[in-house]
Design brief:
The chain is mostly beta strands and about 150 residues long. Helix content is about 10%, strand content about 50%. The protein has a single domain, classed as Immunoglobulin-like. Bound molecules: copper (II) ion.
Length: about 150
């Protein structure tokens, strides 16, 4: 009799362990990161990538840093009614649970302000992205042609 109840308890414990829903939080990964080569005397650069969130909680990109430039700023490019491109700083980019945000030419990008040296194809830039919940994610970014 007691053997049977022990076996039964074990089964119940295993079932509970397997079925209990647990919040796993945000799960952030950075994919397809690349930087464009700098052009002539223009000492600004730009980095693009996709941010994936495979978790079940929204996370927020707070900012970025790199040793390769004076500053790494989150910017968004946009065209006005006449097709003239401009860009402005953005703050707190939300990455929805199960979603992704793409940084791409003509849209969101990380602006490298005042590069310490020009970026040529094949160079590498270390980029640290700071998230509200996932913390800091360090990424090695290759410079390539768009
Ligand atoms: Cu910019």
């Amino acid at each position: 009799m007691w053997k049977k109840s022990i076996v039964l308890s074990l089964v119940v414990i295993l079932l509970l362990a397997g079925c209990t829903p647990r919040a796993k939080g945000p799960e952030i990964t950075i994919q397809d990161a690349w930087a464009r080569p700098s052009a002539g005397a223009d000492m600004n650069g730009a980095i693009y990538f996709r941010i994936m969130n495979d978790g079940d909680e929204t996370d927020t990109l707070l900012g970025a840093e790199t040793p390769s430039a004076q500053a790494a700023e989150v910017h968004e490019s946009m065209a006005d009614d006449n097709g003239v491109m401009s860009m402005k700083p953005r703050e707190n980019i939300e990455i929805p649970a199960g979603g992704e945000v793409e940084f791409k030419p003509g849209g969101l990008h990380i602006m490298l302000v005042d590069l310490k040296k020009p970026l040529a194809v094949g160079d590498e830039v270390t980029l640290t992205l700071r998230f509200e919940k996932a913390g800091e994610i360090v990424q090695t970014v290759k410079v390539r042609e768009p």
